[in-house]
Structures are given as structure tokens and as C-alpha cells.
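seq as requested:
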Amino acid sequence: MRSIHPRPSSRRCAGAGLALLVLTACMVTACGGRVGGYRDTPFKPDPEAPTPRSVTDGRQWQEGDYALPAWPRDDDLVEVKLDGPQQPLTHYIDTRSLRTDPDGVVRYTLVTESPSGARNLSFEGLRCTPQGRWKTYAFGADGRFTRTQADAAWVTVSKTGNDPLHYDLWRHYLCIPLAFEARPKRDQVRMLESGRVPQVENARFLPD
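C-alpha cells:
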């Protein structure tokens, strides 16, 4: 009975495959785990996609300069009507001082009046951010405004009912719902004068 021996071509293929494995192992060892200069792969990776020109590094918001307003006149005061139960104090916005500056801050003179007629005046700023921020720049007395002693910190708008005034200014009157930017002044004044916000606009805010 004749014995069967592998064909020469089969032995050559097996030998060539073994030699290739040995050569690859040597290359990996010599390159410290890299083949062709790329770690863990013998293939050259695709080049990274270029970054679109529209993508830029975000810049931190900075507050701009501002000037103190003139003393308010009664004819320019508009009452801020608040949601919820009646409040002991009445608040007014001086529409002549109301403005949105280039830094996006809505600045205004606030007049708060007690039932006896006593008034407190302050010059404030409101930011139409998703959480809402406000601060006091100056207080008014004897016909003029005086800046606060130190740079006041921004205060987050309270959504628990502790400060309905700034909550309603942020949510209803001065800012555009969900866009988180200031309304045009004419719309701010219109909303303040109407004293109410259409339900369709209220519905555009995210639930608290």
C-alpha cells in the first residue's frame, strides 16, 4: 500500500504562513507593541475629520458697562402685576430706564411702594438665562442713585414663591419663554401695561 505524502506546494504554503507570523511578531516586539508606528493595529488609521469653521471655543459671558439712570417720573411708572395672592407691596417699573444692553442684561429702575405710600427705589439687572439671574446695582434716595458698596453677586431667580416679583419679571414680562433672551422693549412695555401673559406663552415654558 502506497503512503500518502503532502504535496510540495502545501508544505511551501504552510511554511510561508509560519514565516509571516514570525515576522509580524518580530515587528510588534521591535516597535514596542506598534506596527507601522500605530499602537495595537497594523493598519494606518484614517485622518481626523477637519473641524468646521463654525465650531469655535465657547467664551465666558462678561458683564458690560452701564450708566445709572435718571430719577424716575410718575408718568413713566408701570405697575408689575404679580400672579398669586395679593401682595402687601406694590412694584413699578420705570419704562424710561428700561433697556436691554449689549451684554444681554435687562436693566431697569424698580420702585416699591408700601401701603402708606413710602417708596424704595433700586436700579437692577435681570439676565434671561435658563435659571434666571438678577442683581441690584444701586439704591435711590434724595433724587439720585448711589451704587452699592461692593459688586453685588447675581442671585438665582427663586421658583418657590419666595420672590414672586423677579420670578414674574423673568418668566412673564421681560424674557421670551424658552428662547431665554430679552423681549424687545416695546413688547416688554406692552406686557407690563396689559398686566397679564397669554396662556399660550405660559405653556411654552418648561415645567419646573
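The chain has a mean pLDDT of 80.
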